[in-house]
Design goal:
The protein has 1 helix and 11 strands. By secondary structure, it is mainly beta. Strands 2, 4, 5, 6, 9, 10 and 11 form a 7-stranded mixed beta sheet that branches. Strands 1-3-8-7 form a 4-stranded antiparallel beta sheet, with no helix packed on it. The longest helix has 4 residues, at about 30. The radius of gyration is 14 Å and the shape is globular.
């Protein structure tokens, strides 16, 4: 299994930056490296929306609405994935979730709240 735990959310002013972390401290490194890690976000009344993903080989994919503002990266040896968010807007306010997935398995974290407000 690859349990994931998100951290790094909080309150930030418009135009500010945050770094979210998705950690899998209990995973065996070789197992963790079989998973693609992705970030999603969700606002009240809406479905979870894909933000970005990264494979163990560090191939990345981004949703169009975050290109140029968000960057996903991965530290396989420490079993952590990061989401760097810059130039945040009020519309980025949401609960951000991490997902670890491979064929036949998918694990979600509990989420971390990001609030963008002055």
């Amino acid at each position: 299994q690859v349990q994931v735990v998100e951290s790094g959310g909080g309150l930030v002013q418009p135009g500010g930056s945050l770094r979210l972390t998705c950690a899998s401290p209990r995973a065996i490194t070789s197992v963790y490296n079989q998973y693609t890690i992705a970030w999603y976000r969700q606002t009240p009344g809406n479905q979870r929306a894909f933000i970005a993903s990264i494979t163990a080989r560090r191939d990345t994919n981004y949703a169009d609405f975050v290109k140029g503002r968000f960057t996903i990266s991965r530290d396989n040896s420490n079993k952590k994935t990061y989401l760097y968010m810059n130039n945040l807007e009020s519309e980025d306010t949401a609960i951000y979730y991490c997902n670890a997935a491979r064929e036949g398995a998918s694990y979600w974290g509990q989420g971390t709240q990001v609030t963008v407000s002055s």
